[in-house]
Amino acid sequence: MYHFEHQRERDALIRGHVRTDRLHLLFRQTFFSVLGSYLAALMLSWLCWDRVDHAVILVWLGLLSASTALRTVLLVTYFRSPVESRTPQRWELRYWLTLTLSAAIWGGGALALMRPNDLLTQTLVLLFIVGMSVSAVSCYSAYRSMTIVSIALVLLPCSLWLLFQPAPTQIGMAAATLVFASFVISATRKLSEAMETAFRLTREMEYAHSIANHAAQTDELTGLKNRRAFFKRAEQTYEHCKRNRVPLSVLMLDIDHFKRINDSYGHQAGDKVLRQIGAVICESIRDIDLCGRLGGEEFAMLLIDTSIDDAQATAEQLRQAIARLACEQVEGITASIGVASMNGADQDVHMLLNDADKALFRAKAQGRNQTAVA
Asked: Which residues are catalytic?
């Protein structure tokens, strides 16, 4: 059951990432789509200027200018927004509205340019809307539905109009255009599926890498950082605090008489004690702090922006929480803790941890189940 739930959560997470990737690609490709669409309209208007009513052309260009400006504003707003806010839930509908409006204006304007007895104009218009359909495949390839809708809005008005004209040439042009559109729409399915697969494979590889990276840095038993990962982060944390003059304290914790627990109750009971103490440590420190299992029954914690007095208070709370633990037959679980704080004499994090270790040794020598300060 756990594996099934985990798999379902993983699939949902990957689907969400893939959807976001498709959106990012869509917006990155949109600039050239918007620019190309408007330039194509200007070119077609210039070619048809002497053959079509100028008022029709100017009205069409005016509407297209407005939709182009709207799409440009959408693009600028998107790329200026924080990355975390660029979600499909927020942007997909907006994009759909501007795309539908622009494609409908293009298709309606192309139809308005058609003249019943002017085969040259009809051919020019048809050539341009076919070109627009091809560009839609490349620009909106991440979203097959957008590709189909944009092609339909641009191509269908003129194609259907030609299909009902009396001349065989016009009917043939319309039929050829519709056949072309059907092949294009069929090809978009394979292209969209290929892109979906590529996005999914990329995200699955990233997810697998993150899982492997987490496993390599995590102590399997307690869920805390393992020794290697702890010291790597500890060195970075120490240097940051030293450079910025931020107080840094360290706790070294050792479970009292842990060997006796293993010998008396078995290693399974000992593992359970370690898991419980790992959970108590996680609950006792903040998210900004660093904790890890150094090996066996020894744990270490770096408390950022924490004075020696506050660190001692945290250590006492932690020690008392461990003393209250109950683990089946195991009784009297206690821990000793050593506390140290960064000072000018420290040269690196290892010396700071060594100071806390000396305090821990003194706490154990004085009778265990207590906190000692370096």
From this structure: 297
